[in-house]
Amino acid sequence: MNWYGVQAIYRFEMARWFRTIGQSLFSPVLSTSLYFIVFGAAIGSRMVAIDGISYGAFIVPGLIMLSILTESVSNASFGIYMPKWAGTIYELLSAPVSPIESVLGYVGAASTKSIIIGLVILATARLFVPFEIEHPLWMLTFLVLTCVSFCLFGFILGVLADGFEKLQIVPMLIITPLTFLGGTFYSINMLPELWQKIALFNPVVYLISGFRWAFYGVADVNVGVSIAATLGFLGLCLGAVYWIFATGYRLKN
Amino acid sequence: MLPILSIRDVSKTYASGLQALKPTNLDIAKGEIFALLGPNGAGKTTLISIICGIVNPSSGAITADGHDIIRDYKAARRKIGLVPQELHTDAFERVINTVQFSRGLFGFPPNEAHLEKVLRDLSLWEKRNDTIMTLSGGMKRRVMIAKALSHEPKILFLDEPTAGVDVELRQDMWAMVRKLRDNGVTIILTTHYIEEAEEMADRVGVINKGELILVEDKTALMRKLGKKQLTLELPAPLAAIPEGLGGYALELASGGAKLVYSFDANAEQSGISGLLRRLDELGVEFKDLHTEQSSLEDIFVELVRARA
Question: Could you tell me which chain A residue has the CA closest to the CA of B73?
Answer without folding.
Answer: A96
